[in-house]
Amino acid sequence: MPKREDRGSGHGTDLGDGADSTTQTATLPAAPVSETAEPERENGFRAIFQNRNFLILWTGQLFSQLADKVYLVLMIAIIAARFESPGQTISGWVSAVMIAFTIPAVLFGALAGVFVDRWRKRPVLVWSNLLRGGLVIALPLGIWLTASWGPVLGLPVAFLLLLVVTFLISTLTQFFAPAEQSIIPLIVAEGDLLSANSLYTTTMMASVIVGFAVGEPLLALADRLMLALGVANNGPAILVGLSYMVAGLCLMTMDPGKENLSAAHEDISQFWADIKDGWRYLGEQVQVRVAIIQLVLLSSVFAALAVLAVRLAETIPALKASQFGFLLAAGGLGLGLGAVLVGNFGPRFPRRYLSLWGALGMGVCLIALAWTTQQLWASMAIIATLGLCGAFVGIPMQTLIQEKTPEAMRGKVFGLQNNMVNIALSLPLALASVVEAHLGLANVFVGMGTLVGLGGVVTWYIADTAMRKTQAPG
Prior knowledge:
It is built from 14 helices and no strands. The protein has helices spanning 45-49, 52-82, 91-118, 121-146, 157-187, 193-228, 235-251, 270-284, 286-315, 325-345, 351-369, 376-404, 410-439, 441-471. Helices cover 74% and strands 0% of the residues. With 474 residues, the protein is mainly α. Mean pLDDT is 76; it is low at 1-42.
């Protein structure tokens, strides 16, 4: 198996800024990766920390992910300061913001992936961050200009502006996410993909914990600093906007090398044909399809856990319901530890076995939670182990998708993956508390654990059978 350079210089011809490849996505073969060749290298994190392009991408990810999480904290702060009335809860306002943030993921996830396949990845990463930063920085001015306007549809115009900006930021994120996932195989050698995805996942989870934990103090500090400079009430927005912009400026210095792009079409109907090409590819590539299913199941489990953690905190005598974040932080810590283990030692094992062990471990942890619903430390330890096992599922499966998907198809595949994950997240978020109210917390954990364990075994068997058939002689 030939190795590519860290810059990804082995990919097609240099297309320049305006040229397009004539690659036809519908007939592209799967990337020539076989698990029988694993592992190619076992350098762990050492190799990716020596990769300049990946370090630039990672730095951009740090600023962009942190801005994403702190942005939601910023929205809550703006709502509390400008729109909350005495004796009124802000939950309705916050729910509207969350809906505005979620709708683009459902509507545009797959379509964004089609465009990402046609465009060079670095400009997508750069402009999606610069535009998000500009929108956030301009938001306080927009709210100030519309503060005295009358209501529209029963809502203040300033709040409607906030919803529009949130919608636009989330839409830009739908382009950023598949471009970021697609560019990793271009700048990282194949043998280092598992380690790169481990660091990527660790950073993503750390941003969730750090962003929500220190978001409010960071915004307060930014407000005080800007106030000292004579700028009132705009510090938090400037901090978040600058974080996006720093990410964009940082990513400008990355050199992904040569790229193979999907053919550009003038006919708008071709966009739907390209999306169908992505679905057709998933239908033909069993291992990629199964990997996405496992990622969807993994996301659904953690979404359900985010809801059930509130009820679990209520049942634990040492916690209040509002302190459910301690339980989720334990899961994030476990996921980060698992990412470190997978990044350093995962290349020694086949991807499909790592995911099988992870799914079975998650099943056991969920069932074990049924017997610790009133014990703080036992519950936190089990949830941390659940996160660790989740890393054994998520990271190898994400790596497998990158390895086996042709370069000119990655945007479509990752766009569809993000689309399916975001749609799947809505179901556990909506139903988890309702099911728990009818069946009880312990029964829900047992049911989830059984489904996760069985799902892991079934998906592993399907992928393993398909892989053996493709490797069979003749």
